[in-house]
Amino acid sequence: MSTVKAYAATSATEPLVPVTIERREVGAKDVMIEIAYAGICHSDIHTVRGEWGPVTYPLTVGHEIVGTVTEVGSEVTLHQVGDRVGVGCMVNSCRECVNCLAGEEQYCIPGNTGTYASVDRDGSITQGGYSTHVVVVEDFVLKVPESIPYEAAAPLLCAGITTYSPLSHWNAGPGTRVAVVGMGGLGHMAVKIAHAMGAEVTVLSQTLGKKDDGLRLGADHYYATSDPATFDELANSFDLVINTVSAVIDMSAYLSLLALDGTFVSVGAPPEPLPVQVFSLFGNRRSFAGSGIGSIRETQEMLDFCAEHGIAPEIELVNADYINEAYERVLKSDVRYRFVIDISTLA
Ligand SMILES: [Zn+2]
Ligand SMILES: [Zn+2]
């Protein structure tokens, strides 16, 4: 075991504080990563505050991790010391269920091992990326292309793959009309990726406050959902709607935006049920779907796609002692568009 510096929550209500945590010995198939940057995801906040169920404290969160390999186990073949790598939302899976065998380990039936707050294969509770080092089995470690700016790469590991996966699965591309609901951490990545895939991209945001950004990042159109005329004007006009909003929305209004065989995919989820009037699915043979992160294979594909297309998240780089303030700003949607912690300020 090694003892490393980290930031952790000690309860659901106290601010995060500097701590030390234990990392396991580097096993035969493990790599040790010296973390350079870690993104702040809204899920981190839900988790440490116990809003998604009880957690064991102290808990270090963070599942948008980039860093450098500093040690490899004797049987590691995929990575070398010095490689620039990333870790996203999961660090292992059962490897034997039908979904794992299909290469969709994010949907591991007994459950994938989350990067934090999950019971690890050895029974310990996984600890995330707000720390100086992490030990991860080699096939859950991604290669981060050098052409992606180092500090901006971290949010690709959650916000990037969470939006890339449904865009790819539902074939966003030339000739398809994609709407992105919400212009936050996930939404701004959906805009960039859908645009790079060649789709016609429309942002549906509460107000026009981020319109200039939306158009700059690749949107073709930008509408305010607070204006009821938006729903009349855009009725029956999208092949795919990616919903990044984690609040209860008027599903009938949003489903009415779908064209023939269109799909509404939620990657954001309110804690409450989201009522759907089934009749609103009959017209245009519409679908209502969900999507969760992406597989390791697909995450690597996303990283390579972003490198090829020069895509990186818009970030605000902060020091470790700013994490609690950053949380408050995330809750107020006061970030353009993702906070990234400079982990060197933790050491
Ligand atoms: Zn996340
Ligand atoms: Zn499995």
Automatic annotation (TrEMBL):
It holds the Pfam family ADH_zinc_N. Residues 11-341 form the Enoyl reductase (ER) domain. It catalyses: a primary alcohol + NADP(+) = an aldehyde + NADPH + H(+). Keywords: Metal-binding, Oxidoreductase, Zinc. Its cofactor is Zn(2+). It comes from the Bacteria. Its EC number is 1.1.1.2. InterPro entries: ADH-like_C, ADH-like_N, ADH_Zn_CS, CAD-like, ER, GroES-like_sf, NAD(P)-bd_dom_sf. Belongs to the zinc-containing alcohol dehydrogenase family. This is alcohol dehydrogenase (NADP(+)). It comes from Amnibacterium flavum.
